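Working notes for the structural subgroup meeting. M.R. asked for a predicted model of this chain before we commit to crystallization trials. I am recording the input and output together here so anyone reviewing the notebook later can reproduce the run.

Input as submitted:
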Amino acid sequence: MRSHPAASLFLLALCAAPALARVREKTLLRDFDQGTADDRVRLAPALGRLGGKKAVESLLLALDVKHDSPRTTTAIVAALGRAGDPRAVDELTRTWDYLNSMTLQLGELPAGLQVLRVETADALSRCGGKPAVAILETALGDKDPRVVEAAVRGLGRLQDQNAVPALRRLVGASDDLTQAVFESLGRIGDGRCVATLEQGLKMPSKFANIEAAYGLALAGPRKRRKESVRRLEGWLKEDPGEEKAAVLAAYYLAKLDETPGLDHLVKLMNKADSPYAALAAESLGKSGDERAVLPLTIAAKSPDGSVRLAIARALGRLGGTRAVAALRRLRDDPNPGVRAAAAGSLTALGELD
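Returned structure, recorded in token form:
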């Protein structure tokens, strides 16, 4: 039987895709292994996104907290966190211990090492395991509030029930910590968490109310989730003076895969002269909702450079063929900041051409 030309081309494309992916992986690994410090900073996010045995091995071989710059080490640690491979825990633990020893020697770490310490706590939580849990539980009492926040989020990610009493005590410590605690309690989800989240609904801060509602939606069961979703949808209808609170509610709804949240953020992103348009675009990227890619690519023609910049970063978070095509167009944007963001997102996605 005679084959159809279109069908033959389709089959060839299917066969070529894995081969092309292998070539890109090989090129990426080579460029990272042989590259300068700047090359490693630039390429580490792509290795983290790639994950897999070879990528993690390259990252681990390159990790040298004692001799590399904090900037290089931070990029590698963040990539290991993105890969989420348990094999990285030992090296990340050694990095953490070294930074703690430097803190004892210096009293206060330089800014670059402080950032690295936060990133190391985050990466440990993404790789998991008992050593990571032990470090993060101890870090809840850290002097650096950014480390504490990373520990709070990490223990929620790891669903550490032993940390619940300490997490509950942190409610109200600061706005950022309260948000992190409510999100983490939602992920852990036992009765103690639910009780604290229900109290959060009565706090005087509207943002705390929204964060608590999201935590309750995560904690389930289905009935509680539906009630929490209805609460979050109610905040979308607030007056313009509370629009920033509505952005947070919409972001949480999008994370919960609820269409009203996605629609609200898209509408706000496309609203002319809105002070929250860029924030809406950023929130779409952080939501992880793949449905956001299409409206982001359409809005990439916005006359507002800050919106296009947020879109370039958001598309880098979401990825996919359509996102890559839009980022390649944004690489020629008249705004140098947008061009740089698009190029960085493409590299992070492993698109090196």
